[in-house]
Amino acid sequence: MLVEHATHPQALQALETELGPDWLKHGQAIEGGLSALRSIGNLHVLRYEDTFGNEVFPDGEQKIATRLGAADRLVIFEPPQPGPFQQAVSQLALRFHQIPAGLSPDAQPADIVQLPNNSGFEFTLDATRYRYNRFGLERLKASHFPQQTQGEPA
Fold first, then answer.
1. I want to staple 129 with a disulfide (CB 3.0 to 4.6 A). Which of 6, 34, 56, 140 is the partner?
2. Cα distance between residue 79 and residue 121, in whole Å
3. Domain boundaries, the chain
4. For position 129, what pLDDT does the model report?
């Protein structure tokens, strides 16, 4: 009953009237925002009754996963690496957006470097560098790669 009296549209209108024009304006802004969100939601809904096949997909050879995780790549660490939560990490899932185009299916993690204070590790997969720490798995930009010493192959 308390919720009904506090949230019913007539109760809210009575409060707006009692509290003055600023509250009336606030109520209109809230209702307008909710109405806009409902309209946007209705524009983006896929109707259950519609037949599948008229949707436009991206051009090119981009893969589209039909299940969450279907386009992910599992990276295996042998031996397991010390993780940021004092647990050995034997595998990590690279999400589809973290996988570089053309990554060899045979690519294995290499150049594994422990972060200070056992806070995680970095590794390379083909030409891409990753960091796993308490914030999760991150694909690094080339500027974050360890500096190579002279005479060391690139």
1. 140
2. 13
3. 2-44, 73-144
4. 95
Helix (H) or strand (E) holding 23: helix 21-44
Whether the link from the prior residue into 79 is cis, omega within 30° of 0, is: yes
Any residues with CB less than 8 A from the CB of 134 and at least 6 apart, and which?
84, 85, 119, 120
Cα gap 64→146, rounded to integer Å: 34
User: How many CB atoms neighbour CB 120 within 10 A?
Assistant: 23
77 contacts 93 by C-beta, under 8 angstroms: no
Q: In DSSP terms, which residues pair with 94 in a beta bridge?
A: 73
CB atoms within 10 A of CB 125: 21
Q: Residue 129 in contact with residue 140, Cβ under 8 Å?
A: yes
The overall pTM is greater than 0.90 = no
Residues with Cβ < 8 Å from 139, sequence gap 6 or more? 98, 100, 128, 129, 130
